[in-house]
Amino acid sequence: MSDAVAATVEWTPEKRRAYFARERAGIDASTRLPVLTFFAASVFWLLVGTTLAIIASVKMHWPEFLESFSWLTFGRARSAHLDTMAYGWTAQVGLGVSLWLIARLARAPLRWPRLLVGAAGLWNAAVLAGAIGVLGGQMQSVEWLEFPPFVAPLLALAFVVIAMSALTTFGDRQEGHIYVSQWYLFGALFWFPWLYVVANVLILFQPVRGVLQASVNWWFAHNYLGLYLTPIGLASAYYLIPKVIGRPVYSYYLSIIGFWALAFFYNSAGIHHLIGGPMPAWLITYSIVASVMMLIPVGTVAINHHMTTVNHFRLVLYSPTLRFIVFGAMSYTAVSVQGALQSLRTVNEVSHFTHYTVAHAHLGVYAFFTMTMFGSLYYIVPRLTKWEWASARLIRLHFWMTAGGIMLYFLSLTWAGWYQGQMLNDANVPFMDIVKYTLPYLRTRSIAAVMLAVGHLVFAYLFVLNLLHRGEPRRDPTILGDVKEYRDMIGSEGAPQ
Amino acid sequence: MHAVYWVIYGTVILFGVTVVAAFVWAIRTHQFQKFQQGAVSIFDPDEPVGEMTDGFPGESGPPPEVLDCDQDELSKLDPPDPTVKGTSIRHE
Amino acid sequence: MNHGPLIFLGVFFTFASSWLALVFTPYVQLQHLTAAKSGETASSYPRPIAGLALVGQRVYSRDGCMYCHTQQVRPEGFGADFERGWGPRRTVARDYIYDRPVMLGTMRTGPDLANIGVRQPSVEWHHLHLYNPRITSPGSIMPSYAFLYRKQKIVGQPSDDALELPEEYAIEPGYEIVPTEEARALVAYLLRQDRTYPLPEAEQ
Lengths: 497, 92, 204
Known about the structure:
- The complex is a heterotrimer of chains A (497), B (92) and C (204).
- With 92 residues, chain B is mainly α.
- Chain B has helices spanning 2-28, 64-67, 71-77.
- With 204 residues, chain C is mostly helical.
- Chain C has helices spanning 4-30, 52-62, 116-119, 123-131, 133-136, 181-191, and strands spanning 149-153, 175-179.
- The termini of chain C are far apart.
- Chains in contact: A-B, A-C, B-C.
- At the A-C interface, α3, α4, α7, α8 and α9 of A face α1 and α2 of C.
- Chain B: Keywords: Membrane, Transmembrane, Transmembrane helix.
- Chain B: Residues 46-92 are annotated as: Disordered.
């Protein structure tokens, strides 16, 4: 709208409010189709990944379970679990949240929604083909890259299309300030394709020699969490915590310092997965230093989120989004401090090669990232479907099942892993005694997996109800208005610029 | 092998110089002033500072004492109103 | 702060630095490693994996053995890899120049396999163990790879390579269990796991 028209509007506080509500609703609506597509697909893969997780977990303490099916043998089921969770659930839910955040923070409608749906289709077809490939005997024993090689170009292509749409939307931005969440998202969308393509080329298509494959592998696998999932999780937390409680981030300085420290140090931390291995010593030392330096960005995030919420902590009782994200943010601090300690040679000597590492990985990908994404979905989905969640009780059940499940998971495996490591390093302990020692903890892990599965089913049920507009029609507290109503109020369509 | 060292040292120097240059530039152009204002850019007149924007379905929100709004403090945090020309952060 | 290009530059540089340090530099250092002679040995080590063992490597990779077994021996004094008899020396980068993919592994639910071919050279043992790990290792939680074996009716004499199952695992009379091509390949690959040869950089 031209200045002339804008000048004719008399901007009362109510009209100003209405103007912004309408603008926000319009931008949210522009993301509806692609973002809900990503969410729906990711929830599907979450359930698939959970099923595979339970199968793999049970097989660890009950090896006869489903043993006659070659396609469900432990190595394949476990890897199919990891890859469907990584590329089906985390990557996609992260993309959905990123696209929504990018449009919102840019205050510009999302570009090419239909093309994005096409890209989502390609992505999911590739993940499906990959999962079938892994189970069917085409698996590659390369951690986090087990999909058969033909899947990689498809995933990369779909991702580039999605990233282009996001960057173009970013280029359209109306908002003058680039909020810290956008920095993180910008990084994630740029880093992932680079990582993914380099790793696939150097390991699967034009393999580099020997242990170089291992260093490239861990450079990729660690950065998948560090430079893709972590920035998206933090972007979401940096936006939604202040937004939900209605208070700006405690220190914007710290958030920016944290971003650069993360970008610089997380990058180089991955080779700590090869401590003690047949690698050049300088390479491992370099990664250990970077891992310890990670305390800087983690500290900034922890202080910031703590200080932002400190006087409002009780609000977690009143907001589903906040309780999931605060849980995620606290887990982020925990997992990162643990990670820095774990990269020290003395600690790693014990924790390496044990369930301790498995617990650590789940603390990062689940307790931090997945919980943060659940929180984000509780905020985003009603704003896209224009429909409130069906049941507060089920949301609470979802929270307690997942929070309790992951804590049980983490504690049992951390304990088991630490003692497993101590015993492995004592040659007087027969190997089979170690196996027996871990069994009760592995059973506990299966119980935890079932708890998580219950939480996921509840969430999937709520999600489907929401998509179908089932349950009581409510507007408060999340649905804050209707586009038409605002239009009536302002009496024109344009923007007062 | 020597070529590698050249590449490494070269990159370290290039990277260091870039960081210093960016820092000098940032100080010179007053990038660090009004820094905290960026943090309020995600609020607007419809979802202002001090208002909660999420809650459990079908339940009343937190009682006022939990929200703990110090009005004086909040008014300092109010974002500039982009509908009023000249006050947006972008125009600085 | 509205400086998209500046952020881009920073994001690019930080990432490029890690790429340079963790991918490019090790590449220059290690890409041209070759087999080497050491001491009085006549031939160079390691030797390329070939023949049936190469097929076995694929089976090992596709069934994910790596997710419970490492193929690396840590240096003496770091962990108890020596004391457990998993190898006479630490493994070094040169040991892996022919591995595709390199399956160092990060988990020891089961023992290390870097030198399993030396530690357990019996073909029969490996077949029994793969067919049902509980036969050779009571208490093991390793999955059975019975799907790599075939049950067939005995025609005339039992086959040479039929598994000699102990009583409690015996199958119905008149039938025998024989390894498939894949099982024989996997065992060939396992027996090929020998990193005990001397290498110049591992002489300490």
